[in-house]
Write a structure and sequence with these properties.
With 345 residues, this protein is α/β, with parallel strands linked by helices. It has eleven helices and 16 strands. It binds 5-S-methyl-1-O-phosphono-5-thio-D-ribulose.
């Protein structure tokens, strides 16, 4: 199942707000439409929104036909609009910056060469994401023993990427090696990426999955029903503190209490070496109605005050290992993450 495709100079995305009920593709033809698709979670997951935003910049140059001096302004405006959509996932900034670097190198050339170069770059990023996830899967599978019961949150799967997934990439690779007994899928309130997306994705692949509400994790751990927690990441600070879907931190605390390994799976592009520690990571605050309303049904008083942080930060000392495409990284993260990023400390 493709999450994104470049077709006839437009972006085709699988609309994740419709899943699991409807498998529907939506065409995006402008930067405005791309920004809306990212903001409204039609596309979501840190690696995928990075790649979609990269294609958004291709759309910006495809729809432009004026003098090339003005194109630079248009590209910069598109860059700002796209990165403002979701502040926590660093992959978005990373992908857009990479596209702008490619643009800077060719901006003095004719329009068709610029279009060609940017298309090439976005396509490369899309393909790299898939191969990166396969490597994460292979590395991560080494951490698991036969018959492992994994608990995961949100959707860090094929749906959150250009294929295979990060946390679910490990599950997929380990399942192929006969190492997965079952996956506990935390439903992930408020917008239920676990119940709607992870449950759907795993059942399509016939990987045994059982859905739980978010508040059941401790009970299962206490009963010895969880051997490992594996989650994705939206941004990993230089010291290893990791922002991921709200609820991840609670799982990490529970995992430590019950002596269960807690693994984070993410591409190197999710590591923000410029951010010293997790408290500096901007946390996206979303519409309160996401908490008040499930589907079409208001489940509380219509005007009850609500907080709706989309992510939380897990301190690095609770993380057993971070699995990247370059290998398995363990603490002290300040040193090991710098090393993996080729940064001298
Ligand atoms: O709000 P979402 O659905 O974009 O949140 C996604 C997550 O928190 C994922 O765990 C993270 O982006 C990693 S996806 C491989």
């Amino acid at each position: 199942m493709k999450t994104i495709e470049w077709q006839n100079d437009k972006i085709l995305i699988l609309d994740q707000t419709r899943l699991p009920g409807q498998v529907e593709y939506v065409t995006l033809s402008s930067v405005d439409e791309v920004a809306h698709a990212i903001k409204s979670l039609q596309v979501r997951g840190a690696p995928l929104i990075g790649v979609v935003a990269a294609w958004g910049l291709v759309l910006a140059v495809m729809s432009y036909s004026g003098p090339s001096a003005e194109l630079a302004e248009i590209m910069n405006a598109a860059r700002q609009q796209l990165t403002a959509t979701r502040p926590t996932a660093v992959n978005l900034q990373w992908a857009v910056s990479r596209m702008m670097e490619a643009y800077d190198q060719v901006q003095d050339l004719d329009l068709s060469s610029i279009r060609h170069r940017l298309t090439e770059e976005a396509r490369a990023m899309q393909e790299e994401d898939l191969s990166t996830n396969r490597l994460i899967g292979e590395w991560g599978a080494r951490l698991l023993h036969p018959d492992t019961k994994v608990l995961t949150i949100c959707n860090a799967g094929a749906l959150a990427t250009c294929g295979h997934g990060t946390a679910l990439g490990i599950v997929r690779s380990a399942f192929a090696q006969g190492k997965i007994q079952k996956v506990w899928v935390s439903e992930t309130r408020p917008v239920l990426q676990g119940a709607r997306l992870t449950a759907w994705e795993l059942s399509r692949d016939e990987i045994p999955a059982t859905l739980i509400t978010d508040n059941m994790a401790g009970f299962l751990m206490q009963r010895g029903e969880v051997d490992a927690v594996i989650t994705g990441a939206d941004r990993i600070a230089a010291n290893g503190d990791t922002a991921n879907k709200i609820g991840t931190y609670s799982l990490a605390v529970l995992a430590r209490y019950h002596d269960i390994p807690f693994y984070v799976a993410a591409p190197v592009s999710s590591i923000d070496i410029s951010m010293e520690e997790g408290s500096l990571i901007p946390i996206e605050e979303r519409d309160p109605d996401e908490v008040r309303i499930i589907g079409e049904c208001c489940i509380t008083s219509v005007d009850i005050p609500v907080v709706n942080p989309a992510f939380d930060v897990t301190p690095s000392h609770l993380i057993t290992a971070i699995v990247t495409e370059k290998g398995i990284v363990r603490g002290p993260y300040l040193e090991t993450l710098a090393e993996i990023n080729n940064v001298k400390r």
